[in-house]
Design goal:
0% strand, single chain, 37 residues, mainly alpha
């Protein structure tokens, strides 16, 4: 059960890092359709 929480935490932090790097470069996968998954 704890493994699930760890995986969710890692995934959330990864998405956050990707989102910040996308905003910094301003040329990301979400530039076409403004939806960040």
């Amino acid at each position: 059960m704890i493994e699930v929480l760890i995986v969710i935490g890692l995934f959330a932090s990864l998405m956050l890092v990707v989102d910040m790097s996308c905003e910094a470069e301003s040329s990301c996968h979400g530039s076409d359709h403004g939806t960040n998954l």
